[in-house]
């Protein structure tokens, strides 16, 4: 863990108790500022197309620096500095670092990247749901073919003509008739 490592920055930032925020030593404040300036200066180096002659789709030096910052946990510390109310003094440094992180990206590319990923996930979800629906319908058909057809005990409603009920109407019978003469 060198003098500009995220571990030292994390140690300088993460105080054990809220009272220590006010009692942070001057050397810790200077260390934090120096580390943020170092990160800013590293990201501020302009790209050199003659040096970066790689295969199409190969990660540029800037992308590899961003990946190293992510692996080291520096991006989490920057998010912490940007969102913590007590760390507002570092807001402009963090804002500048974030703007340098997105330096080579156009807004259209970033928006398309997010939409492309969401559209691909949506298409995959739709295909998965459709396959589950087809499987469920097939299982339902298979169960219907396997089930023996049972006759219902309810045979329906019958009208007995010639036999009068109350009110001069024919009798309505709601049971299956086994013997019509009965």
From TrEMBL:
<feature type="domain" description="Timeless N-terminal">
    <location>
        <begin position="19"/>
        <end position="159"/>
    </location>
</feature>
<dbReference type="GO" id="GO:0031298">
    <property type="term" value="C:replication fork protection complex"/>
</dbReference>
<dbReference type="GO" id="GO:0000076">
    <property type="term" value="P:DNA replication checkpoint signaling"/>
</dbReference>
<feature type="region of interest" description="Disordered">
    <location>
        <begin position="1"/>
        <end position="21"/>
    </location>
</feature>
<keyword id="KW-0539">Nucleus</keyword>
<keyword id="KW-0131">Cell cycle</keyword>
<dbReference type="GO" id="GO:0003677">
    <property type="term" value="F:DNA binding"/>
</dbReference>
<dbReference type="GO" id="GO:0043111">
    <property type="term" value="P:replication fork arrest"/>
</dbReference>
<dbReference type="GO" id="GO:0006281">
    <property type="term" value="P:DNA repair"/>
</dbReference>
<protein>
    <submittedName>
        <fullName>TIM protein</fullName>
    </submittedName>
</protein>
<dbReference type="Pfam" id="PF04821">
    <property type="entry name" value="TIMELESS"/>
</dbReference>
<dbReference type="InterPro" id="IPR006906">
    <property type="entry name" value="Timeless_N"/>
</dbReference>
<dbReference type="InterPro" id="IPR044998">
    <property type="entry name" value="Timeless"/>
</dbReference>
């Amino acid at each position: 863990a060198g003098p500009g490592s995220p571990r030292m920055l994390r140690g300088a930032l993460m105080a054990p108790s809220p009272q220590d925020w006010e009692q942070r030593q001057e050397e810790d404040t200077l260390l934090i500022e120096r580390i943020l300036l170092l990160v800013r200066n590293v990201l501020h180096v302009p790209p050199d197309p003659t040096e970066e002659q790689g295969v199409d789709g190969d990660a540029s030096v800037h992308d590899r620096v961003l990946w190293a910052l992510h692996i080291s946990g520096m991006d989490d510390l920057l998010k912490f500095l940007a969102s913590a109310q007590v760390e507002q003094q570092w807001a402009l440094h963090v804002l500048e670092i974030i703007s340098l992180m997105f330096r080579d990206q156009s807004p259209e590319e970033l928006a398309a990247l997010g939409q492309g990923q969401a559209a691909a996930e949506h298409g995959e979800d739709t295909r998965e749901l459709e396959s589950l629906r087809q499987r469920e319908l097939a299982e339902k058909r298979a169960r219907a073919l396997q089930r023996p057809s049972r006759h219902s005990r309810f045979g329906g409603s019958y009208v007995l003509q010639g036999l009068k009920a109350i009110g001069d109407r024919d009798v309505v019978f709601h049971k299956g008739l086994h013997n019509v003469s009965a």
